[in-house]
Amino acid sequence: MATHDDKIEEAIPLASMKDGEPQAESSTLPAPVSAIPPKAKPKVHIAVIIPIWMAFSVSVILYNNHLYSTLDFKFPVFLVTWHLTFAAIGTRVLQRTTHLLDGTKDINMNKDMFLRSILPISLLFSGSLIMSNSAYLYLSISYIQMLKAFNAVAVLLISWIFRIAEPNRRLALIVFMISSGVALTSTGELRFNLLGFLIQVAAVCFEASRLVMIEVLLHGMKMDPLVSLHYFAPVCALINLFFLPFTEGLAPFHQLARIGPFVLISNAFVAFFLNVTAVFLVGVGSGLILTLAGVFKDILLITGSVLLFSAQVSPLQIFGYSVALAGLILFRTTGGK
């Protein structure tokens, strides 16, 4: 999965943080879903887990793009559905064989919670995954990563619209910086595709809405990335399976023999284990370290897309993305987790 798994900071709702402690500030979102209960924090040194997480994160996107571009397997809905099915099975295997999903014991899942929280969030999650993966059919990896800088702005705007957070001058300045940077990257894009741009914008809207809805509907619950995947993956897989006949039909199944089981299984394996490494990452990293790791990972992705897929990046895009990243870092180090 190329959205849920390519940015750990996107998998964890935004909240006001400074020096690792929540700040009482009316302009921020409510306290986020807790990453990992203190008693269950995995013990892995941060110098070990960050490179592993970055390797999986970069590999997921490059591998997916390899499927779409090099292997000509242009079926993002099928691929996302396969990833989610693999994740649904994988989390249940880990639940029975490890302690990584012990957090499920603290969650009282019932019919009311499923219908009011899990189902609507899953609908947004499916929309985010399908749209973000579909964008790779039209846009370069580098440009998509630049556009993703707008996710934080979308979360803030939706929060302001629904009065979950109150705007102030500092946040308005950050919104302006990120928006201006993204606008410059779009202006400098040498292979701009309007349809791909609109699809990625839709993906950002779905993802931002999902994060805000998590804050509202799952406020105070303890869900790390794997526990979250345990509940959402099977629901999202069924939702995607419903849309598959109307979007891609039987075409992807006719291509399975050409692609082969090794490619499909290894691709899903990489996507799933990105979520496993995310559990360890959020258990040892501070907000600043996670932000810098995410920024460095994005730079690696952009560099990789240029070297491996001959993506073209203009000087104006580099300048615009630098402005957007400055705003993003300013936001996450002063007002967001």
TrEMBL record:
Chain positions covered by the region annotation Disordered: 12-32
Spans through the membrane: 44-63, 75-94, 114-137, 143-162, 194-217, 229-247, 315-331
Keywords, comma-separated and alphabetical: Membrane, Transmembrane, Transmembrane helix
Subcellular location: Membrane
Statement: the UniProt record of this protein carries the keyword Membrane: yes
Protein's membrane topology: Multi-pass membrane protein
Top-level lineage group: Eukaryota
GO cellular component: membrane
Residues of the Sugar phosphate transporter domain: 45-331
InterPro entries hit by this protein: Sugar_P_trans_dom (IPR004853), TPT_transporter (IPR050186)
This protein's name: TPT-domain-containing protein
Species assigned in the record: Mycena alexandri
